[in-house]
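Chapter review: from sequence to fold.
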Amino acid sequence: MTKLLDPQQLSILRAKDGYLCDMDGVIYHGNVLLPGVKEFVAWLRQEKKRFLFLTNSSEKSPKELQQKLARMGLEVGEEHFYTSALAMAKFLKEQSPGCSAYVLGAPGLVKALYDVGVTMNDVDPDYVVVGE
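The token string follows.
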């Protein structure tokens, strides 16, 4: 059972400048937006709060996630999404700029790596990257 927040807890939360939200099970379930999400995002915008939707899925790019939410009736820009694929790409770019990788994963992962200059290579790669 979900516990409701008391007024003091709500006041503390409302005072925050930014919000990080998981996606699957928090923003949507399957292809259905969860109750209250549109109102929450409208409040974030109205109050000029920073927000980011996080996912541990490397399958989809931020553009694909943006389109998924749009199909559910929620318009959010690509800049509001951060995926595990983007985290992996950032890590490799910082650790080994211009490296090569053998990638086992969906297009979202491949695109994120490609966008930061990782070369795809199945012969003696610097890294093996495994994702969805």
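Two observations follow directly from the output. The chain has a mean pLDDT of 94. Helices lie at 7-14, 37-46, 62-71, 84-95, 107-115.
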